[in-house]
Specification:
7 helices
Length: about 170
């Protein structure tokens, strides 16, 4: 193994997807749930489909966790685009995965998918900018831009609520 956990494996080494699922699925689901702005069905479907596709391509994937994140985000984005064509459903009434995230869900819906993914991975999943870039399949510079613009937009959207709380 080159990295920690199931992230990276040596070429020719079989990946234990059962262990990858146990280690990565809860965090992946929470980040996709936040990315989908509280839509449990989108998170469930995206994570399940990403793992199913990973199993189909098991011999071709070198770094399963970043691959799973990229694909789950793509699948969730497709689901959200399809939902946009339908009337806006209410988010699930389940408790938010982290304290304070529930108040952010409506604001997160206002961000672009790339901004939302970067913000959720960096702040909710507590990943470094480099790891966010790796999991999103983009550059560190692009992640920094998405984080900057996402934070700025969230400040605009939540600014009035912060002033009322003071």
């Amino acid at each position: 193994m080159r990295g920690k956990g199931p992230d990276r494996v040596r070429p020719g080494t079989a990946i234990n997807y059962e262990q990858v699922f146990r280690d990565a699925a809860p965090g992946l689901w929470r980040t996709v749930y936040a990315f989908a702005a509280g839509r449990r069905a989108v998170a469930d479907d995206a994570v399940a489909e990403a793992f199913a596709r990973a199993l189909e391509r098991a011999g071709q994937i070198r770094d399963p966790v970043p691959w799973l994140y990229r694909n789950a985000f793509r699948l969730a984005t497709e689901d959200l685009r399809r939902e946009r064509r339908k009337p806006e459903p209410e988010p699930d009434q389940a408790p938010a995965p982290a304290a304070g995230l529930g108040a952010l869900l409506p604001a997160l819906r206002q961000l672009s998918p790339a901004q939302r993914a970067a913000v959720v991975l960096h702040y909710e999943a507590d990943l470094s900018v480099q790891e966010v870039a790796r999991r999103m399949g983009t550059s560190v510079g692009a992640v920094k831009v998405h984080l900057f613009r996402g934070r700025r937009r969230l400040r605009e959207l939540l600014g009035a609520e912060e002033a009322d709380d003071a």
